[in-house]
Amino acid sequence: LSGIRKLAKERAKKASLHNRKLRDCRVHLTDAKNSRSLESTLFITEGDSASGSITKSRDVNTQAVFSLRGKPLNTYGMTKKIVYENEEFNLLQAALNIEESMEDLRYNNIVIATDADVDGMHIRLLLITFFLQFFPEIIKEGHLYILQTPLFR
Length: 153
What we know:
Elements: H1 2-17, E1 22-23, E2 41-46, H2 47-57, E3 63-68, H3 80-85, H4 87-96, E4 109-113, H5 118-134, H6 136-140, E5 144-146
Parallel strand pairs: 2-3, 2-4, 4-5
Antiparallel strand pairs: 1-3
Helix pairs in contact: 1-4
Catalytic activity: ATP-dependent breakage, passage and rejoining of double-stranded DNA
Domain Toprim: 40-146
EC number: 5.6.2.2
């Protein structure tokens, strides 16, 4: 596990320099001097098309967007090793800065913003499973939200 953790740290370091899935904001939860740090929000979206809409309408100072590609891995009953090896979750973990501890959480609000269809519901459940399995403090401390999107036909 230590070898995998080392590999994950190296990947996270590369990801923190340039996380291609993250459209970051200027203010983060760890910015104690900034009065808007509690407004910092990360939207986890389903694909590039959904992230494009949110990216265009967001407040660039306090709202970041992380775009998922496809359906994430079902982590129920899995070990942390699997998460370190999964690129999507490794990049998400790096974007949130929660691998070591919750003390360095970069965003006060984490919003799951998926489509209002069956696939969107499945992705939402897979993400909630990921947070419950490995980072339950995010849910217990009230950082995780679900964006209820309208269904257009």
